[in-house]
Amino acid sequence: MMPFDSIRRRSFLKAGAATGTVGLTGLAGCSSITGGGTPELGLAFTVPVENFGSLFAIEEIRNELTNVGSEYELSVTRNESTPDSLNAMAAGEVDLALLSTVSYASAVTQEAVPGNISMVATDFWDAHPEWYGFTIFSRSDSDITEISDLEGQNVGVNAQGTGTHAVLRKAARQEGFEYGSDAQIVELPFPTFVSALNDGRIDAGIFPALFAVAARSEGFNEVYSSQDLWDEAYPFAFTVGSNDSIDEKSDAIAAWGEDLAELVEYSYDNRSQVVSLAAEYFELPEPVVDGFFLNQNDYFRQDITIDFDRLQFAMDELVELDFLQESFDVQEYATNEFVPSN
């Protein structure tokens, strides 16, 4: 299986990083839908394929959906981290964005976006016992094989202040050490983790599902996963909308929510075709996409509606981990109004 080193020369890290957003190959040519008189929505995501919203960028898949192009126009962009997407939303560049637990909580409590935000859909869950959970890998020849071995080491994450950072912090505290004093976090883009491990820039790294395919193919050690930290699954990634956009474009966002439900159903019903289209569009090796998408190596995707009880648990947990000073009532900043239940 092709390692991810080759992908670094491709569309993952193309120009645009200086502004906090990264365009994908062909994005300007086919992910903006032109037409007259329809509302325009901007959607930002972080990890291709892994974030369902990224599939809206693929014309052949988008053509299977009912509303896009008629009820609303859509532009899709990729950012290196969820805080980058949040910054884009705060700047008014996007209406909808993929955020993780910490980014969502921070945005709400700090009122980072004018008018604040509301969660409108769930993307995936972490720590489900039968599905993939965020996993920390070390090199196959490394002595780092359990959480306590990470003390004193350099550990890679895409960005601090993210949900993946929370997975690192919870494990460290469970073993009685802290990042910043007893171990160090190194910020790197996910596509560089394999090479960074192999050349010694980091001693371990946290891998999302897409990139874990390469870690497994390299024979890396699985140090721990989210399932070792939490007894139950919890919602991890979500699509949020700025409240200003929700007020101004509620019909368009509802139409997008219907399309999202169709997109999920279409992906399950036509998995092989979606794998091939996504691999080609995002310039990924097809075995890599096939190695995780909608199989046992993927996250638990219960449905796109919001489970308020488990979401509240996730926010309360962030207080315990010192990502939040105090929790908040998630039902004031989340709604199932815009997506149909499965």
TrEMBL record:
Main location group: periplasm
A single Gene Ontology CC term: periplasmic space
Places the protein is found: Periplasm
The name this protein goes by in its record: NitT/TauT family transport system substrate-binding protein
Pfam families given in the database record: NMT1_3
Keywords assigned by UniProt, alphabetized: Signal
Keyword RNA-binding in record: no
Native organism taxonomy: Archaea, Methanobacteriati, Methanobacteriota, Stenosarchaea group, Halobacteria
Family indicated by similarity: Belongs to the bacterial solute-binding protein SsuA/TauA family.
Superkingdom per UniProt: Archaea
InterPro entries named in the record: TAT_signal, TRAP_TAXI
